[in-house]
Amino acid sequence: MNSSEPSQTTRRQFLKTSTVATLGGVIAAPGILGTKSSAASPGDEIRIGLIGCGGRGSEAAMNALRGDKNSTIHAIGDIYAEQIDSKLGHMKRDADLGSRVKVEDKNKFVGLDAYKAVLDSGCDVVILATPPGFRPLHMKAAVAAGKHMFVEKPMASDAPGVRSIMESVAEAKKKNLAVCAGFCWRYSSPQRALYEKIHNGDIGNLTSMYATYNTGFLWDRSSPKDITPLQKQLRMWYYYTWLSGDHLCEQAIHAVDWMQWAMKDVVPVKCTAHGGRQVRTAEKYGNIFDHFEIVYEYANGVRGFLFTRQQAGCANDNSATYFGTKGTGKDLGFSGTLTLDDKGERNWRYSGPKPIMYDVEHAEFFASLRSGKHINDGDRMATSTMVGIMGRMAAYTGQEITYEQALNSQEKLVPDNLTWDSPAPEVKVAMPGQTKFL
Asked: Mind listing the pLDDT tens digit for each residue in 326-336?
């Protein structure tokens, strides 16, 4: 070991925040907890464990390396060995960051239980980026292991999963573990400026909201290698509600989160919804819908309208509009505007810097570790996820669903103790008016 580097013991003291020893009645905690002025120095290496190395997971790992110059990728786990090799090769070839991808062969883990090995590999931070159905299980294990975590959106695919996430968030707070949510727009400079103005009353009192997430078809990763129904579902995970939560919860959850942000994370009282499978009906597309329309109603009378669609050859749109008693605010992705009704003209447009939000969320996450003032996005990430699931429940059943009903739903989609020999969950397409709320 280079004498200028911190010792292994010192590094672990800084980063293993799950251990708080009581000596002679005095609590001794690691510096990174923020209980001392000597928080982790910029030279301390932070080892990252990546759980789920698909496209989003591997990209998040690179965002993490850009977010902190002394972070390294230490371990990786996935259910496919070829996925690990492919993504590692891609990451290592990066001219600027490749040298910090330090995953030894002993720290490559394959299988449905790979997450356990990653957590036990000596990493300090984990990125949870598997299909959402697994997120509650993995977050619970990460909290128990005392890891700081970046938790990709959405955080669950069913209400029991959200309740588990809420329990893990509460436990993470007790252990002073950082939780950074993958709702990336909350780390976007234009959005931060826009929503600050909305919260400050620049458009008056909010009366209604309209958000869209209309896109084309997504990918088809079906493979002849997959023989059993479970293998086929895991390969095409996006198209199965138990794994993804449906595209309303997996992709359009960003639009849900925008509206929740505008509402200062107060949850809607109830919602009604439409939805169905009109175009994407082939068996390989599992049981998710290809379009939704949801109306959320809040206690103060505000209505939130969300349209989302994944159909090829249609007009696409990804934006949000907020109507107030004085004017209108528009979230246009990487810009934002405000218009005053009495003038009929734009009176504000964001014109500041636009750093890459994916990098910013990791930069702020790691900065919080080094300062000891840990980020914890846990409460809002859980409620935004639940509001998305609530909308899906209303569309699937055709019923008006309250938030309390949704949160307390007993419909459990994700099997316990899943192995490769487990039977695949039943593939049944919801029929509004026939599918029962559980």
From this structure: 989 988 876 55
DSSP 254-323: HHHHHHHHHTTTPPPSEEEEEEE-SS--SGGGTT--SEEEEEEE-TTS-EEEEEEEE-TTS--B--EEEE
Average pLDDT, integer, range 71-87? 95
In the chain the domains, ranked by start, together with CATH numbers, are: 8-185+373-378 (3.40.50.720), 186-352+379-407 (3.30.360.10)
Tens of pLDDT, residues 266-275: 999 999 999 9
One-letter amino acid identity for 69?
K
Cβ atoms of 114 and 85 within 8 Å: the answer is no
pLDDT given at position 61: 96
Burial 262-298 (b: 16+ CB within 10 A, else e): bbeeebbebbbbebbbebbeeeebbbbbbbbebbbbb
pLDDT band for 349, please (50, 70, 90 cuts). confident
What pTM was computed for the model?
0.88
Name the average pLDDT for the chain: 88
End-to-end CA distance of the chain: 58
Give one DSSP letter per residue of 150-175, joined into a string: EEPSP--SSHHHHHHHHHHHHHHHHT
Number of other CB atoms surrounding residue 417 within 10 Å: 7
Dihedrals phi, psi of 297, to nearest 5 degrees: -120, 125
Q: Which amino acid is at 395?
A: A
Element (H, E) at 386: helix 378-397
The pLDDT assigned to 148 comes to 97
